[in-house]
Amino acid sequence: ATELLVESGPRAVTVDAVAERSGVAKSTLYRHWASRDALLVDVMRSHVPDTPPVDLSLGFEAALRSQLSIAVGVFSDPEWLRILPSLVSLQHHVPQMAELMAADREAKLAMLRDVIDLGVAEGRLPAGLDPQQVLHLLIGPLMFAVLSGDGARLPGLADEVVARFLASYR
To answer: Which of 27, 49, 83, 169 is the most buried (most CB within 10 A)?
Structure first.
C-alpha cells in the first residue's frame, strides 16, 4: 500500500491493487481493514515519525535547538519525504487522516509548550506566546526548504531560525 501511494498517489491505493501487489487475498485485507480509508490511515500511522521528548533539564535554548534538530531529522528522512505529499492531500479528504494528523500536531505542540514555558520561566520569552504561531515561525522555513528541494541546508537553516527567533526577544 505504501509503494502504491508513493508511486501513484492516494487514488491508486485500492483494495484490489493492494491485494494484487502484495499477493494477499482481498478477504484477508478486509479482515484487517474495514475500508480503503482505514487501510490508508494505518499506512500513514505507520509512517508518522516518533519524536522523542525534549530534555528540558538542558535549559531553554538547548531544548529549543534540540526540538528543531528533531524536526530536521524528520524532514531529512527519505521515507517520510516520500509519503508527505500524500499525507498532505489525504488529511483534507479522509476524516480519520485529519484526526491522526491533529493528534500528532497536538503532541508536538505540547512539547513546544513545555519549551516555551521554560523560556518564559528563564526570562527569555514573554508570557502569552501562541504555541501554534511559534511552531509556524520555527518549522515553516524548514518545511519550505524541504518542499523546494533544499533539504541539504536544513541543519544550518534550523540554527539560523533559532538564532533569529531568540534575537527577536532580546
So the answer is: 83
pTM of the complete model beyond 0.90: no
Q: How far apart are CA 138 and CA 7, in angstroms?
A: 31
The three grid cell numbers given for residue 47, joined into one nine-digit string: 509512517
DSSP 8-class letter at 148: T
| Residue bearing cell 533539564 | 57
Helices 78-90 & 95-121 angle (0-180, nearest 10): 120
Kindly give the interhelix angle for 60-75 and 131-147, rounded to the nearest 10 degrees. Answer: 40
47-51 LR contacts (CB < 8 Å, sep 24+): 47/2, 47/79, 47/80, 47/83, 47/87, 48/100, 48/104, 49/73, 49/74, 49/77, 49/80, 51/107, 51/108, 51/111
Q: Rounded to an integer, what distance in angstroms lies between the CA atom of residue 10 and that of residue 49?
A: 20
**Grid cell 499525507 — which residue?**
87
Across the chain, which has 170 residues, the per-10-residue mean pLDDT values are 87 92 93 91 86 94 96 90 84 85 91 97 97 96 93 95 96
* Rounded Cα distance, 161 and 139, in Å: 9
